[in-house]
Structure formats: structure tokens, C-alpha cells
Design brief:
This protein is an all-alpha fold. Helices cover about 70% and strands about 0% of the residues. It is built from 12 helices and no strands. The protein has helices at about 5-30, 50-65, 70-90, 95-120, 125-135, 140-150, 160-170, 175-185, 195-205, 210-220, 235, 240-260. Helix 8 (about 175-185) packs antiparallel against helix 9 (about 195-205) and helix 9 (about 195-205) runs antiparallel to helix 10 (about 210-220). It starts with a helix and ends in a 13-residue tail after the last helix.
Length: about 270
């Protein structure tokens, strides 16, 4: 047999066996843990298998460790599964109407679980939980409590500085820029917030800080995110070729500092031309 074909067959068999093994393990997990309520998730349905599996396993983890972070993640997994199953419930298939009914039941279960999680989280005063309640459910009391923490060490993390920046985006541009930079300064280099990078590019452009806007746009591109097509550079910036090259060097240094967790906003030096 052709070696390439053999390699492909072997690879497929490994992938398929892994899928079957995961399904078997999930079924066993459901059977041994009635509290997971897998019977409400339409587990025999071929649709939405991946988000359902992710949800079941994380639910199991949450039952073992019911932390706010785990509950928040479970909420998002439920939302993802609900979205997938809502679409699946509308698919016209040759399956009996009972299948569609089970899909609707799964959607309703996901919605009820989201309500339950929110209800449990409302007793918390952790900053990340307050931000979740405010941003995801519009809880104004959570918003008030979160904003009262501004300036405290509780919000002095990469995630919370970015969260705070989202509040000021349409209220105070300079403060938003500061908070976005601070968020990146507090990151460890492993999970750079690309949304912060993109927002720095757009806000600096909005404020006519063209050199910084270009630098952040190039940094975003180094993270494989395109904010502005190169063909628009002349229209947006109008720099000389020499200036583009110098700013590219600045962007490369910023990218390197972000990757190593050493980024400091005041270290960005725009070359004089």
C-alpha cells in the first residue's frame, strides 16, 4: 500500500478512536454522576457534540470546585451550547419529531442553568464576578460595586484593568488608553489581550496620535490580527518610507516586550524625524 495512504489511514484511525474514547468516557461520567443532569442535554444527538462534551466535563469540575471563575466559565459554555442547539432545533432533518423536542428541551435546560448560575453569583463581591454580572446581565448594582473598587489592588490585574477600560471607552479616551496600557503591563506574556492591542490602535488613530496608532496596528499584525490593510497606510498615516521602517522597529520591540511579559508603556519611544 502507498506509504502516504497508509499514513493517512493511521492518522484517521487515531483521530476516530480518540473521538470514540472521549464519547465513551463522557457517557461513563454521566452514568456515574446523576448531578450532571446529562439526560437534559440530549446526549444522543449528533449535533453540538463538542460544546456539549466541553460543558459536561466542565460542569463536573464545577461541582468539585464551585468557584466563581468555574461558574462563570460554565455560564459561557452553556451559552455556547444553547446557541448551537437552538440552531440545531431549526434544522429540517429526517429524524422523528421527538428529536426536535429533545433539542428544545436541551435549549430550555441551558437557559434555566444560566439563570441558576447568575442567581448564585449575585451573592459574590469578587471583582471579576461583579464585572461578569454587569457586562453579561446588565446588573447595575454589580456595576456600582465594581466601579467603587477603582484604584484598589483588587482591580490591579491585567483582566480587571481591561474590564475597567471598557467602562471608560466612550467616556474618557485618555483614561481608557492608560488602562489598556496598564492591562498589557500586568500581563504575563502568555495570554496577551489582543483586544487591548486592537483598541489601542483604533483609539490612538481616533485621537490623531498617528505614530502610536501605526505602532499598535503593526503589533496587532504580529499577533496575526489585521486592523488596517497596508494599501490604506498612505491615506491614514502618510509617513515617509524611512519613518515607516523606524516605527516598524518600535513595533517589533513592543511585540517582543509583550511576549516576554516586560512591556512598559513609558518605554515606547517614537523616533524624531
Amino acid at each position: 500500500m502507498n506509504k502516504i495512504k497508509l499514513a493517512v489511514i493511521i492518522s484517521l484511525s487515531v483521530v476516530l478512536s480518540g473521538c470514540f474514547e472521549t464519547r465513551k468516557n463522557t457517557e461513563q461520567l454521566c452514568e456515574s454522576n446523576p448531578a450532571l443532569q446529562c439526560d437534559q442535554l440530549n446526549v444522543d444527538d449528533g449535533q453540538c457534540r463538542v460544546p456539549r462534551t466541553d460543558l459536561i466535563w466542565h460542569h463536573h469540575e464545577t461541582l468539585s470546585n464551585p468557584s466563581d471563575d468555574n461558574k462563570i466559565k460554565q455560564y459561557h459554555l452553556l451559552a455556547e451550547y444553547e446557541k448551537c442547539m437552538t440552531l440545531a432545533a431549526q434544522i429540517q432533518t429526517l429524524t422523528p419529531s421527538e428529536r426536535k423536542s429533545k433539542r428544545v428541551t436541551a435549549v430550555l435546560h441551558a437557559q434555566e442553568e444560566k439563570v441558576r448560575i447568575v442567581s448564585e453569583l449575585e451573592a459574590s463581591n469578587a471583582p471579576q464576578t461583579l464585572y461578569f454580572l454587569w457586562s453579561q446581565t446588565g446588573n447595575e448594582e454589580a456595576r456600582r460595586q465594581f466601579l467603587q473598587m477603582e484604584g484598589s489592588k483588587m482591580l490591579d490585574t491585567a483582566e480587571m484593568q481591561y474590564a475597567l477600560a471598557t467602562f471608560y471607552t466612550n467616556r474618557d479616551t485618555e483614561k481608557t488608553l492608560y488602562l489598556l496600557n496598564r492591562s498589557l503591563e500586568l500581563s504575563d506574556g502568555k495570554n496577551t489581550n489582543i483586544d487591548a492591542v486592537k483598541t489601542l490602535a483604533s483609539l490612538n488613530l481616533q485621537e490623531d496620535k498617528l505614530e502610536l496608532a501605526y505602532v499598535w496596528q503593526q503589533v496587532a499584525a504580529m499577533f496575526d490580527v489585521q486592523t488596517t490593510h497596508e494599501s490604506n497606510h498612505a491615506l491614514l498615516y502618510g509617513f515617509t518610507q524611512d519613518k515607516y521602517k523606524r516605527l516598524d522597529m518600535v513595533a517589533e520591540q513592543v511585540h517582543e516586550d509583550l511576549e516576554s511579559g516586560k512591556f512598559r508603556a513609558n518605554a515606547i519611544t517614537i523616533p524624531n524625524m
